[in-house]
Amino acid sequence: MMIRRLKMALWSVRLATKERGVPRRSQREIVRQKVRDYLAIAEAHSADEHPLDVRSVASRLTISPTTIYKYQLNREINAAEKRRREKARLTGKLIERQAFADRIGDLSEEVEKEREKNKKLVAQIAIIEVNAARLGIDPEELYKPIPKPIRTVSRAGTTPRKRRF
User: Fold this and answer.
1) How far apart are CA 25 and CA 34, in angstroms?
2) Do 74 and 68 contact (CB within 8 A), yes or no?
3) How far apart are CA 141 and CA 134, in angstroms?
4) Structure confidence at residue 127 (pLDDT)
5) 3-state DSSP helix/strand/coil percent for the chain, to nearest 5?
6) Phi and psi dihedrals of 109, rounded to 5?
7) How far apart are alpha carbons 29 and 110 in whole angstroms?
8) Cβ atoms of residues 58 and 64 within 8 Å
9) Largest CB tally within 10 Å, which of 32, 70, 114, 133?
10) Helix or strand or coil: residue 163?
11) How far apart are CA 46 and CA 85, in angstroms?
12) What distance in Å separates the CA atoms of residue 102 and residue 119, rounded to the nearest whole number?
């Protein structure tokens, strides 16, 4: 009787798996999926946060490093580490390039501000020349240098004047 019940239970389990049409996933596929998920996350982060070597990946995923070697997932781990290193190099270059682009943009804005100041000064000078002409002053006279003061009278040897309060 007991054997009959066991056979019936086994038969019902087999029937249930056939009805579902989904065979049980192999351990290899489960481990491979875990490793690939971890690699996808680790590639986007720094090496300090998510190290990419066989032992570290195994300890993070709580699986044996031997299992990783057995399923040849170490190749995927090494390839992910290589991609991350290349990406880090590119990001370093991109950061430097972005800094130069920002500096060029800042300097362009500064040049534009100086041009505006220059235009305002030219406009102010034009107004001054027009007003000078209106007042009867030759505008060319405005650009002559100021003459040096005449210092022919010497004050050497004179006594200082007494101040009166």
Assistant:
1) 13
2) yes
3) 14
4) 95
5) 70, 0, 30
6) -65, -40
7) 59
8) yes
9) 32
10) coil
11) 10
12) 26
What type of residue is 163?
R
User: Ramachandran region of residue 25, left (φ > 0), alpha (ψ -120 to 50) or beta?
Assistant: beta
108 membership: H or E segment, kind and range:
helix 74-134
Cβ-contact 21, 11 below 8 angstroms: no
Cα–Cα dist 125/42, whole Å: 65
Calpha distance 130→136 (Å, rounded):
10
Report which residue type is found at 120: K
The helices-and-strands tally (H runs, E runs) of the chain is: 5, 0
Q: Tokens representing 50?
A: 């998510």
Task: Give the amino acid at 16.
Answer: A
The tokens for 32 are: 């491979």
